[in-house]
Design goal:
The chain has 290 residues and is α/β, with parallel strands linked by helices. The protein has one domain: 3-Layer(aba) Sandwich (Rossmann fold), CATH 3.40.50. β5, α5 and β6 form a beta-alpha-beta unit. α3 runs parallel beside α4 and α4 packs parallel to α5. Bound molecules: nicotinamide-adenine-dinucleotide. The site of nicotinamide-adenine-dinucleotide has 29 residues, from α1 and α4.
């Protein structure tokens, strides 16, 4: 209940999906939360949900592509709660055409439509968060990257490139700002992510993962190697962010790791059958090599 007690945490893209879920959990863990989003009407309900249950939160509209808006949001956090301890650079958008446009046909406008938010927006959030954190006693910056930063998704070339760039930015920033006690890490979600991601910004906030929204969860039919009796949800991607925000990860920096993955990455290139076991001979040869 107190993993983020009295920490001041700013979240971008906090009006829906993962950012909204993190805002709610962070407040439950004792954080004072500043909810920001490009879509102004998504902010109020999240702030209300937090304050209705005894938490502390305020909100402001901020488009992460606009430096003055990001700077103003950070300023609001400092003015309202005295400092900034955690920034969750989470705002992100999918590619135009949702995977239907080949990389060779992507226009500059389409490329920028993704990466202005997903890469430039992360840079601007990090830049202004660092300036605020330097004047106190350090802090933690957590970025929402994607499994697309680690593997390629066909038709998502601009997104894949931007998210891989995010992981590079995390490493560079962790190296540069470690001297101020500022940690920078990212999570790379795979399953259990927001169904709103592929919907219009004007769509109602559903607050569910693709798997939850699909209903009738059957672990035996799931593509996820880890079999659990419930579908992956936003909270399964949110808790690792709470961990990175908290002092539990005090000596972790420069790391981008998959969340809600269930072992998928270990299997992407080698499709082992379900009943696969290592033969005694192979086991012996592996041990010899080790
Ligand atoms: N849903 C997925 O399939 C998936 C998978 C892996 C990673 N991600 C990443 O997770 C993060 C959160 O997305 P989500 O899945 O919760 O989707 P979502 O659409 O539910 O939430 C994203 C929020 O960001 C806001 N936003 C978009 N552009 C913005 C901008 N320029 N400035 C400020 N706010 C902006 C949106 O209004 C929205 O409220 C993104 O970085 C996304 O790339 C999503």
């Amino acid at each position: 209940m107190n993993r983020l007690l009295d920490k001041v945490m700013l979240i971008t893209g906090g009006g829906s999906g993962l950012g909204r879920q993190v805002a709610i959990l962070a407040a439950q863990e004792g954080a004072k939360v500043v909810v920001t989003d490009k879509e102004e009407d998504r902010i109020g309900p999240v702030v209300q949900a937090i304050t209705d249950t005894g938490g502390t939160a305020c909100g402001v509209r901020a488009d992460v592509c606009q430096e003055d808006e990001v700077a103003a949001a950070v300023e609001l956090a400092v003015e309202t709660y005295g400092r900034l301890d955690v920034a969750h650079a989470n705002a992100g958008v999918t590619v135009p055409g949702q995977g239907s446009i080949s990389l060779e046909d992507v226009t500059i406008d389409q490329w920028n439509a993704v990466n202005d938010t997903n890469l430039l927006g992360v840079f601007l959030t990090l830049k202004h968060a660092v300036r605020a954190m330097k004047s106190s006693s350090g802090g933690s910056i957590v970025v929402t990257s994607s499994a697309a930063s680690l593997v390629a998704y066909p038709g998502f070339g601009a997104y894949v490139a931007g998210k891989a760039g995010v992981n590079g930015l995390v490493r560079a920033a962790a190296f540069e700002f470690g001297r101020y006690g500022i940690r920078v890490n990212a999570t790379c979600p795979t399953h259990g992510m927001s169904v709103n991601f592929g919907l219009e910004p004007s769509a109602e906030v559903v607050g569910l993962s693709y798997e939850q929204a699909a209903g009738n969860w059957d672990p035996e039919a799931a593509v996820i190697p880890l079999r659990l009796p419930f579908p992956p949800g936003l909270e399964h991607n949110a808790w690792p962010i709470i961990f990175l925000a908290s002092d539990e990860s005090q000596y972790m920096s420069g790391v981008s790791f998959p969340t809600c993955d269930g072992g998928q990455h270990a299997r992407t290139s080698i499709p082992f059958p379900d009943n696969w076991v290592l033969s005694a001979e192979s086991e012996k040869s592996i041990q010899t090599k080790i």
